[in-house]
Structures are given as C-alpha cells and as structure tokens.
Amino acid sequence: MAREGRMYIKFVTGCLFYMLLFTVYFLYMILGDDDSVVTIDESEFAVSINDHQRDFSTTIQKLHQREKQNSVDNLIHSRWNVLDLGSVQVAGRWRQKRGFLTIGIPSVKRARGAEYLLQTIRYIISRTTLKEKESIVLLVFLANFDTDYNAAVLKNISARYGDYMNSGFLLVMQVPEKYYPPLTNLKRNYNDPPNQVAWRSKQNVDYAFMFFYGRNISEYYIQIEDDVMPAFGFVKDIRAFILKNYKNPWVCLEFSLLGFIGKLFKSGVLDKLARYLILFYDEQPCDWLINYFLSSVTQTRHIYNRKSLFQHKGIWSSSSEKSKQGPFKAYDIYFREGKLNNE
Fold first, then answer.
1. pLDDT per residue over 173-188, tens digit each?
2. What is the pLDDT of residues 273-295, one digit of tens each?
3. For a tag site, which of 9, 33, 151, 269 has the least CB within 10 Å?
4. Total structural domains in the chain?
C-alpha cells in the first residue's frame, strides 16, 4: 500500500514538473528575451483578420455551391430514376426485329376518349399496307390513373384488334400512378390554375415514359394523339421526307402544325428527350420544352413537310380546364387526306 502511494506521488510530481516547464516555454515565446511585452501592429492585425474573413467567406461560398450542386444532382437523379422500364406494363408481343417506325399514341380519359382512340387505331390500320405493317409498331399508352377504366379500354382493344397485338403491330402500355413524380403543389410559372399545371406536367411525364420505352423499337418514332386521322399513304410520305433530308443534320421532322402531333424523331435521341422532359416536367408545356430541346441539340429551326399528314378530329380536350370551355376543334389547314391507294 505504501509502495503504491509513493508511485502515485512520483506520477503527480512528474506531471507538475512538465506543466511548469511548458508554462516557462510559453511565457518565453510571448515575452521574449528582454522581458518586454510583444506588440502587434494594428494594421497588420486588421489585414490578417480580413484575410481570414475572405478565406472563410470563400470557403462558405464553395460549401454553398457544393450544396447547391448536390441538390441539383439529387434532383436530376431522383427525376431520372422515375424512368424505369420495370414500371411499364405492356400488353402485346414484342418484335425481336427492329422496325422502321414506331407510332406513339398517348390516350387520356375524357368525354368520348375511348371512342377517339379506337377510331384512330382503325385509321392507322386501314391506311397502312400489309408490307408497311411488318415494319411499324403502334404504341398506345393508356395514361390514366383509373385502373378500372384502363382495364375496360384494354379489353375493348384486345377484342377488336387482338390479332394485331399478337403480331407485334400493336402494343398497349400502362404505368401505375405510384411511379409518377409529384403532380400537386407544383410551381405556377404562368399563374395557371393548379389543375392546368398538373395536367401539362403529367403530359410531360406521359411523353417521357413513351419515349423511354419506345427508344429501341424502331429506327424512327413519331408522336401523334388519340383523336387524329392520318392521310392516305402517310408512311410513304414520311419515308420520302426522311430521304429528302438525308444529307441534312436533323433531330426532329414535323408532319403537322398542331402541338406535338406529327413530330418524328430519330430513335437514338429518345433517351435524351425523355430525360429532358422528366427533368423540366413541372416548368413548361411539352410544346414549349421541345423548342429548347431542339436548340440544345443544335437543330435551330423547325423542318416541316410541305403538307401535314395528320388531321385533328376530336372536339373534347383531355384538359379539364379546357373542357370547361366546351367542345373545340383545331384544324390543320395544310392537311391533305389524299386518295386510297390499293397497293
């Protein structure tokens, strides 16, 4: 016990000795050899403080920039992650061979909506030849959150056009609501009613899903609507216009003046277009976003076919706000239906 006490005293004494030694060294560094107090010039001190303030401010700015960039990166990745093929439900047979043209038709529940869609499918079938059908895929998107309505429409399509679904000519896709980004409490950039903002934002997401799913089906992709009528020989005219612009760099050729109807893309760009629309889905309507997208991929002008190949037939909009104004029909004055060709 006495031995342990002596060891403890030695330990404490040693600690005190080294503390005293450190104190002497510290006073020596501050007071100097002549025991005079060291003075610091105020101007030098001010410069030093300012330098530290600038360094600190720069560091804070960099941290804010990094935080902002991380927020942007997280936003981009969170929105791009919406585009997951596992979320797409498809009825119909996928063709192994890549075709010439995919015709995309988004369809939304509204007055006479199912009737419009069935009529448009019938138009496409009747105005394409058997040979053309071998290299065309009609991609219909039932873009409704009402699953019972979708089931009824799909049942109707299958009953009427089941053979075309089995042949791979007709595919019908759906995406459950849970895979969509938020569609409420969105920015009202143009002071539009919330319902209108939600409608146009959802339309951007609908199109993004279609472009992403359809990007590897055919060489080209054209977007129309579920209430249009194609001209006779429209596939032949599309081929001719593509050939006419073969030597010109382009991303989008246009076969109608109305909205997004008749816009044809090289399938290789659909992935970028889908991601672009999903990234800015809540900013602007798709008819406006496409202009910015084309500029970003160096297509600085619209390239129109001399005649429109698709005429708008519906009178009821898929927008609830527009439907409140009553029936309205938009005509493309450059549309020419042409004549039946029995090739």
1. 999 998 999 898 888 8
2. 999 999 999 999 999 999 999 99
3. 33
4. 1
Is residue 180 domain-resident?
yes
Taking 90 as the threshold, does the pLDDT of residue 110 lie above it? no
Mean pLDDT calculated for residue range 205-210? 95
Cβ burial 142-174 (10 Å sphere, 16+ → b, else e): bbbeeeeebeebbeebbeebeebbeebbbbbbb
Residue 34 is assigned to a structural domain of this protein = no
Overall average pLDDT of the 239-263 stretch:
94
> 3-class SS at 79?
helix
The pTM of the whole model exceeds 0.85: no
Enumerate the β-bridge partners of residue 230: 310
- Within 8 A by CB and 6+ apart from 242, the residues are 220, 253, 264
CATH of the domain at 232: 3.90.550.10
Any domain includes 214: yes
E strand or H helix that includes residue 163 = helix 147-167
Q: What was the pLDDT predicted at 4?
A: 54
Domain ranges, residue 142: 87-323
- Report yes or no on 165 lying in a domain: yes
User: pLDDT per residue over 146-174, tens digit each?
Assistant: 999 999 999 999 999 999 999 999 999 99
SS3 335: strand
Contacts of 235 (CB under 8 A, 6+ apart): 101, 128, 129, 132, 136
DSSP designation for 301: S
Q: Which residue has the tokens 């959802």?
A: 202
